[in-house]
Specification:
The structure holds two protein chains of two kinds.
Chain A: E1 6-13, E2 22-29, H1 36-45, E3 73-76, E4 79-82, E5 95-98, E6 105-107, E7 110-111, H2 114-122, H3 143-152, H4 160-164, H5 177-188, H6 196-204, H7 217-221, H8 228-246
Parallel strand pairs in A: 1-5
Antiparallel strand pairs in A: 1-2, 3-4, 3-5, 6-7
Helix pairs in contact in A: 3-5, 5-6, 5-8, 6-8
Chain B: H1 5-32, H2 39-50, H3 55-80, H4 91-116, H5 126-134, H6 136-163, H7 170-202
Helix pairs in contact in B: 1-3, 1-6, 1-7, 3-4, 4-6, 5-7, 6-7
Classes of the chains: A alpha+beta, B mainly alpha.
The complex binds iron/sulfur cluster and FE2/S2 (inorganic) cluster (FES).
Iron/sulfur cluster binds at residues 155-161, 178, 181, 221-224, 226, 228 of chain A.
Chain lengths: 250, 203
């Protein structure tokens, strides 16, 4: 057998949120069909950098390995994406791995995305059905709406859109594109629509929909191809209509 | 209830950018282009505007205040936006950056422009503008100012249609981008034609 093919990885590492970052290079044995996660597992198996030093293995997050959980989002060759569907064969080498720095870094490629959970809580991205008695089946949804709403429901809170958005930065409090799209989803749901005004009010709050500057990076990076810019424009319409007319009804 | 003042400030900024600021700019460039018909026709149209009733109040309420608000709040937006077009080079992200660059240029230009014309202490007429563009540096600054403000208007209109939920889908947003490109070229041509007319008569 000829000499083993190796994959060259450059990883931006960091011990914890307060320490400074550094890069470390690795060469791991290649197997066909490998993804970035498999390459990281190789480092874990044999944590030796290119200088031959034994180092702590690189930390990352992953779960489903089929682009359905969102956990493995990281910046690969400059773009935020899921590591599990980033196939080595399709990537230019050396492969550069970085944490999504729009979030606080926990360690190496692991980031803390709780701000996304907070945003979902703020906009009430759920359908409230709890009660003291059986509320019965909800109203039906038109098939025409169900089709596009299903696409929005594919969001797995990976944070790629938040990472790519220029208006998510230290100077603003923008909640991020995904949260706006989730409001559209739950305001379309026939039962969710019963609370649509609460979500709209939240989008008018601090860091809400008005922080969007239409750079449209979000729709480019979303791994689930969610029409984020369509959601934002549609919600702009809903929010403005509500804002401009609600006071007339008071 | 959470604070919603940012929402209102932003929406007001967006609305004022179109009504009245963009409407005024288009009107202003169009009136200026009467300079291409000669000094006399230009002075006539300036006198026509100067003869409008309540001019000071109209100027202050419908031009000066909205322009000031849009400009100052726009500066705040430009300096709190993030910029990552180096990393994400997609067309819209580059436009996002150019919108802010053109906004800052327009802001500086408008301050200078008001200073050298409206608040210069001289009455506006053909010769006054001709004297300004006689200086090549000032001439080119005015060309840049006109093209940048026309860009900011056109691209701003593109964003306005999204901020007000008019162009919702990607296809309509693309069509509107082409239309706005056309508006940019037309307004720039109208504005530049006037500047050339002021410049050439002196030569
Ligand atoms: S909208 Fe797309 S990019 Fe944003 S969090 Fe959801 S899946 Fe990720
Ligand atoms: S591991 Fe679940 S999306 Fe990649």
């Amino acid at each position: 057998m000829s000499e083993q093919k190796r994959i060259h990885l450059i990883v931006e590492r960091q011990n914890d949120n307060n320490s400074s970052s550094y890069t470390e290079e690795f060469k791991v044995p290649y197997r066909s069909g490998m993804n970035v996660i498999a390459a990281l597992m190789e480092i874990q198996r044999n944590p030796k950098n290119t200088k031959g030093e034994n180092v702590a293995p690189v930390a990352w997050e992953s779960n489903c390995l089929e682009e359905i959980c969102g956990a493995c989002m990281m910046v690969i060759n400059g773009k935020p994406r899921q590591a599990c569907t980033a196939l080595i064969d399709n990537l230019e080498q050396p492969i550069k791995l970085q944490p999504a720095r729009t979030f606080p870094v926990v360690r190496d490629l692991v980031v803390d995305r709780s701000r996304m959970f907070d945003a979902l809580k703020r906009v009430k991205a759920w359908v409230p059905i709890d009660g003291t008695y059986d509320l019965g089946p909800g109203p039906r949804m038109a098939e025409r709406d169900r089709q596009w709403a299903y696409e929005l429901s594919k969001c797995f809170t990976c944070g790629a859109c938040v990472e790519a958005c220029p208006n998510v930065n230290e100077k603003t409090s923008f909640i991020g594109p995904f949260a706006i799209s989730q409001v559209r989803l739950f305001n379309t749901h026939p039962t969710g629509a019963m609370h649509s005004h609460e979500r709209i009010e939240a989008l008018m709050g601090e860091g809400g929909i008005h922080e969007c500057g239409n750079s449209q990076n979000c729709v480019q990076v979303c791994p689930k191809n969610i029409p984020l810019t369509t959601s934002i424009a549609a919600m702009n319409g809903q929010v403005n209509r509500y804002a401009l007319t609600s006071w007339l009804r008071k | 209830m959470e604070q919603q003042k940012d929402f209102w400030f932003r929406r007001l900024h967006s609305l004022m950018g179109v009504i009245p600021v963009s409407v005024f700019l288009a009107f202003h460039l169009f009136v200026n282009s009467t300079a291409t018909l000669g000094a006399e026709r230009y002075n006539e149209s300036v006198a026509g505007i100067a003869g409008l009733p309540f001019l000071k109040i109209i100027e202050f309420l419908f031009i000066f205040l909205p322009l000031l608000y849009h400009g100052v709040y726009g500066m705040y937006i430009a300096f709190t936006s993030g910029y990552n077009a180096g990393r994400y080079t997609w067309f819209r992200n580059q436009m996002f950056v150019w919108h802010r660059i053109s906004g800052v240029i327009t802001f500086i230009f408008v301050v200078w422009h008001l200073w050298t014309t409206r608040f210069s202490g001289n009455a506006a007429n053909f010769d006054m503008v001709a004297a300004i563009v006689e200086n090549p540096v000032q001439f080119w600054f005015m060309i840049i100012g006109v093209v940048a403000s026309a860009f900011h208007l056109a691209n701003g209109l593109w964003g306005f249609l999204i901020h007000w939920g008019v162009t919702v889908g990607p296809r309509s947003q693309k069509i509107s981008a082409y239309a706005m490109g056309g508006i940019w070229l037309i307004l720039s041509a109208v504005g530049v034609s006037a500047l050339l007319a002021f410049k050439n008569t002196l030569a």
